[in-house]
Amino acid sequence: MPHARAGQVVGLLGGSFDPPHSGHVHISKAALKRFGLDRLWWLVTPGNPLKARGPAPLAERMRAAKAMMQHPRVTVTDIEAHLGTRYTAQTIAALRQRYPAVRFVWVMGADNLSQFHRWQDWRWIMETVPVGVIARPGDRISARLSKAARIYRDDRITGRASHILGHLEAPAWSFINVPMTDQSSTAIRARGEW
């Protein structure tokens, strides 16, 4: 299990990381800085319930993620496999139970906010932990017009105030723009590089 001290703000960046790439590193560093996180955990998931095709074996993705993400405040973990959780809401509930004195922030790219309303128990997630959203190429407008963004528009804090996100009570979310990279796992797989 990853280590976290009472009172720390820990960002959770979930995904298949199939494969991990420099874009993941880029948004991780941005999240640490812009959302005022003490630590960030990469949650390398055993599988994505929204994708028909399964990812590469978990052990292979974990090795690649650990080789890619070299930062003292970032932990690459397969904790979902150990917890036996399949959905983000289940993972968050289990982590809050195991780490009751830690403040968690769910971190995701704008592409995920665009279809967040399709996630199981997505409203519970929004109302349980603050959510930090990072712009992705081509997804800024669709994310800002998404169902989740519209429903929780009054709970959005500005990018300037994003550093306090982890200290706010949910629902609270922030959308930040950062210099973008066009790296994507889908494109890497399509080129046959993974």
The N- to C-terminal Cα distance equals: 28 Å
Compute the number of helices: 9
Low-confidence stretches: none
Oligomeric state of this protein: single chain
Bulk shape? globular
Which whole number gives the mean pLDDT?
Answer: 90
The strand line-up of the biggest sheet is 3-2-1-4-5-7-6
Strand content: 15-25%
Return Rg in Å: 15 Å
Order of helices and strands: EHEHEHHEHHEHHEEH
The level of helicity is 25-40%
Number of DSSP-assigned strands:
7
Helical/strand content category: alpha/beta
The biggest beta sheet is recorded as: 7 strands, parallel
Q: Which features characterize this protein?
A:
alpha/beta; 7-stranded parallel beta sheet; 9 helices
Give the SSE map.
Elements lengths: L8 E7 L6 H13 L4 E6 L13 H11 L5 E4 L1 H5 L4 H11 L4 E7 H5 L7 H7 L2 E4 L5 H5 L2 H5 L4 E2 L15 E4 L8 H6 L4
Parallel strand pairs: 1-2, 1-4, 2-3, 4-5, 5-7, 6-7
Task: Give your account of this protein's structure.
The chain has a seven-stranded parallel β-sheet, sandwiched between helices. It has helices at 22-34, 58-68, 79-83, 88-98, 110-114, 122-128, 140-144, 147-151, 185-190; strands at residues 9-15, 39-44, 74-77, 103-109, 131-134, 156-157, 173-176. It is an alpha/beta fold. Helix 1 links the parallel strand 1 (9-15) and strand 2. It has nine helices and seven strands; from the N terminus they run E-H-E-H-E-H-H-E-H-H-E-H-H-E-E-H. The model has no long low-confidence stretch (mean pLDDT 90). The protein starts with 8 loop residues before the first strand and ends with a helix.
